[in-house]
Amino acid sequence: MRAGIIGVTGYGGLELFRLLSGHPEIKQVFLYSSSKEGTLLSEDAQHIYGYTDQLRSLEQLESDKLDILFSSAPSGVSTKLLPPYIERKMKVIDLAGDYRLKNADAYQKWYGKEAPNSLLVNEAVYGLTEWNKHEIQQAGFIANPGCYPTATLLAVLPLLKEGLIHADSLIIDAKSGMSGAGATPQKASHFAKANDSMSIYKMNKHQHIPEIEQTIQTLANVETNITFNTHLIPMTRGIMATIYADLSKDIQSSDVSEVLHECYGNKPFIRIFKEKADLFTKQVYGSNYCDLTFGIDERTKRITVVSVIDNLVKGAAGQAVQNMNVIFDFDETEGLSQSPLFP
Amino acid sequence: MRAGIIGVTGYGGLELFRLLSGHPEIKQVFLYSSSKEGTLLSEDAQHIYGYTDQLRSLEQLESDKLDILFSSAPSGVSTKLLPPYIERKMKVIDLAGDYRLKNADAYQKWYGKEAPNSLLVNEAVYGLTEWNKHEIQQAGFIANPGCYPTATLLAVLPLLKEGLIHADSLIIDAKSGMSGAGATPQKASHFAKANDSMSIYKMNKHQHIPEIEQTIQTLANVETNITFNTHLIPMTRGIMATIYADLSKDIQSSDVSEVLHECYGNKPFIRIFKEKADLFTKQVYGSNYCDLTFGIDERTKRITVVSVIDNLVKGAAGQAVQNMNVIFDFDETEGLSQSPLFP
Amino acid sequence: MRAGIIGVTGYGGLELFRLLSGHPEIKQVFLYSSSKEGTLLSEDAQHIYGYTDQLRSLEQLESDKLDILFSSAPSGVSTKLLPPYIERKMKVIDLAGDYRLKNADAYQKWYGKEAPNSLLVNEAVYGLTEWNKHEIQQAGFIANPGCYPTATLLAVLPLLKEGLIHADSLIIDAKSGMSGAGATPQKASHFAKANDSMSIYKMNKHQHIPEIEQTIQTLANVETNITFNTHLIPMTRGIMATIYADLSKDIQSSDVSEVLHECYGNKPFIRIFKEKADLFTKQVYGSNYCDLTFGIDERTKRITVVSVIDNLVKGAAGQAVQNMNVIFDFDETEGLSQSPLFP
Amino acid sequence: MRAGIIGVTGYGGLELFRLLSGHPEIKQVFLYSSSKEGTLLSEDAQHIYGYTDQLRSLEQLESDKLDILFSSAPSGVSTKLLPPYIERKMKVIDLAGDYRLKNADAYQKWYGKEAPNSLLVNEAVYGLTEWNKHEIQQAGFIANPGCYPTATLLAVLPLLKEGLIHADSLIIDAKSGMSGAGATPQKASHFAKANDSMSIYKMNKHQHIPEIEQTIQTLANVETNITFNTHLIPMTRGIMATIYADLSKDIQSSDVSEVLHECYGNKPFIRIFKEKADLFTKQVYGSNYCDLTFGIDERTKRITVVSVIDNLVKGAAGQAVQNMNVIFDFDETEGLSQSPLFP
Questions:
Q1: Which residues pair with C4 in a beta bridge?
Q2: DSSP conformational letter for B272
Q3: pLDDT digit string, tens, across residues B239-284
Q4: Does 3.30.360.10 match the CATH number of domain A148-311?
Q5: Which of B197, B207, D25, D34 is 20 to 30 Å apart from D263, CA to CA?
Q6: Fold of the D2-145+314-327 domain
Q7: Closest Cβ opposite residue C234 in set D203, D235, D237
Q8: ipTM surpassing 0.90, yes or no?
Q9: Could you say which architecture CATH assigns to the domain D148-312?
Q10: Mind listing the pLDDT tens digit for each residue in B299-321?
């Protein structure tokens, strides 16, 4: 098989390249760039020094025969670039936010950009693999989930769907490593500023909020508004979502445990830890795992659910490859079975 | 004036030494150690290389004439060591948790240790300077607040006292730098494990929970159970508390702002930032500041309040010195006016 | 094939487990521990949560049928544990320093421990794969190189062997990530001490000095004493060796380049960068690469040679697996072809 | 006294502001910016939130009555900005490299910029306080040393001047925290790239090389070419210089120790540690100290000298304030007596 990557110079794109290069079913990976065509990716990206294929132009993409196209271009770019490929029925997986929100007004409000063609938006299948596998199998075009939504939704959907928690009480305190801010140098990611410090940003206004709410509605059938905050942590990779909710009446620890195991027992990338385990982000570093734990506070009748993922793998490129595996009916773990790197 | 420090080899003790050494009213600082008497503190603590006073024994402490004694020994030790000095009316400031909880059962439950003499516990004044200044002025014995309670209480007390938020809805998601775990090497603070990673620990069972609840009751006159979780962040110093609560009816952003400014407008160490400011912990690094911001989410009628402190300064040694200043009627900022170190 | 690992709870052992678990020729990995037999490795090592094989005892090791045994026990332990397995002609690869130094006096002087059985020492083949492949192919017992020696020797051996530099002028300024200090918590690796700081340690007395000198003599046929210093860097993995030497007469940049390419042109794990490239350790993170660059200073007629490796991979477990591949005549890159993880 | 700072938005400028604000002899600090006049420094620099003086324009500077002007503008800017103030005999301390090199050709070669007015260059006194105090006392215009030269020169000048080492053998392996790269976001200082990694940069071509060589000639009276390399370490502040040299005949450890103590015994900011001490950069964090140790390798007859400084304090703003103290005949430690911040 031959795969293509648009936007390979960003962190999501580099990670796609890493995973696809090691994927047993992929024989060739074509890399596209709108601004750096003709140069070598490895000039900038010294970790793949020795890789000698030149970056291809978007013109070449038009005639290249690809079995699947991944786009890791920034939000707003997919809207412009992807339509022709989707329309000609190329399999396309978009890692940006453009095609995730079904509601055009919501997209414009939260992203501050013009919404893409609504026909294509409707065609897009939301690629939360563990929850949408059937749709993904049939899909030609995948809107790959955001990093925060992946960490959040995998933790709360089982509990919401089974009515264990009150949707209206959901508060998500999310923490992310700095690679989530992208590869472009800027003030907040300047080492001397970010090191040995942590920050809160985009209070109540992160664009992943409507994505989480929409998916809760679609997949757990509950309409709700969530409270959601994001923090930058002085680490490279990793997301931890610490999630708070009021328990429904009479729910016990064993109920939660049962629901989680029933939901995820046979899912290869979800690992359910014992109650109140001290999860840490590095335990999934470089892997496609989403690790979960929870704790019930008898004093307040609230539950804390915790999930950790690698934002660039399960939160981006890894889940995209997992979706490709589903589309082409490969084993779901194909090319994704690397152990987390620890320490 | 002559000050003494018990437990100077820990991080709180070292920070006390730093602040007291630079305090204009303190002429001499005596350092005590139960295990290392006769050695030089600077042998281990290379940053004060050249400081040549030997560590003194606890026997010497009995006869030393001190104007004030700080204890930064671990929880459990103060219970045994401090009674004679409190009883002989020496001014004593204890940085451990031993004398903070008025309820002996609560102490035993949360600390797993035998509670100290209840007469002395009752005598102890809780040293949250901005809120207890009058009592501190009269006090002979101060139980200095914990780091998490300081960050939490300074943020929520004004809102609780004025009825702006529902006490029962309080959820505190707290994050701390690793120095909060103390100076003794252990697994969770091993560099290769902690670096480039973050963790959640003591879910719903941190011993600072009853301290926060007790103080809310005492100072804001509300009885409540809070949800409280703690995380370790790969940074040396700093605490951020991200606090969630349901707003009381019809509360607007301007109400919150007004209450905060009224409460803290003339407090030298509280800085109130504009709404939804991107606070980061390093902005208070090495200083006694507590910086605050908040954001109201109109969609959920919840407020997020955020506070950042340096856990070793405002969260420990700095507040202790501030309390000393109050006791001796010095200017509250004496010896504490250093600017945060940035970057 | 069935492989065994002694000392799997250390960082070298965990990395061996990671690599062997993903190795296509290894069907089973048996894990041994002298102190934790019967427990689960994954209890401590959350990144492999779900791995359910119990740690086996050293008694079981005696009767287990293994094709190869890796030992990642600390220095001193191999001396006691390994002899029976070497003697019964099991293939053994030791990652500790015990069997590296041919001279018993040198071992005692630099390690401060009793030297192992000299017959076995003589039997041991030094596993610097790129330089000793022929001997390794025949070997039954491999003394796997230290992390610093690997980084140093791969950089200097070609230049010494071809006489491009003066051996007596060799100065090696080595820097290592903190995982090199092992998995046991201690003062120097305590996060609050090590973070945001770097240190020099063991000035002129690191036990890797005689290993480097002995190998220079064996493989480049030059007797010399080197100057060698080591630094701890606030990062988890990675070694950079910055190496200084006086150039032999009339040596040009092109001579050095030619020698390096001739020596390593067909070696899969050595990547030669252009002159004076800005190498960084993370470009080899998690991989078995050793990346090299050099710069000639015309003003001083000295050369700087720089190498970077991942201390736990090429500097330990990766090279051990590479040696296993050579012994069993597998492709040298089998199980080691993972791309570095960046960022 | 009233001090002015040009270029206060950079890290050197912010540190000058921190130190001058706490300096007992400075009553007022005026801040100048060519691009941000009229705005508040504290808008960007949240650590000084509450500081309400607006940034002043360079036009205002022309008429402001200052006792001393510090310039922390980037190299190249001082050349253009400072001449009028120097000429009107205002006391000026320049933290940039423009006026450090006496040789215009050297400046152009190493900085790639046009050299400043040679009359003013000649007037500039090199502000290495411990070595040039007499000249500084008389000076009207100070070229404040670079960070690497400060760490290097303080370590080697005593040994060179007393003939203990061979100047031609000098090799300096320097390591710096990322704040040395300035406050402007760029690739090499992007957190996700720099974190958990270290790099070598500007091999043999750092612009501080001629500054070190010139000063060795001026102050130790030896002409030499040095080998000098620089590395970026994932920490915010701190420089360690690991310096190698061949010992002169018959020099013993005691000779070195004696020379260092004689040279620096009464210097308040130089701390001489015992031989082969494990220095770490954080032991001087936030302070004006330069800490030194050394080790002699009997096997190679070479010495290793190690120095650590805080690059923003002793390596920039701190030394500038120290020079101001000398010029105005204040105590040398005035405003600089803060203890290092540890941990």
A1: C30, C69
A2: E
A3: 999 999 999 999 999 999 999 999 999 999 999 999 999 999 999 9
A4: yes
A5: D25
A6: Rossmann fold (3.40.50)
A7: D235
A8: yes
A9: 2-Layer Sandwich (3.30)
A10: 999 999 999 999 999 999 999 99
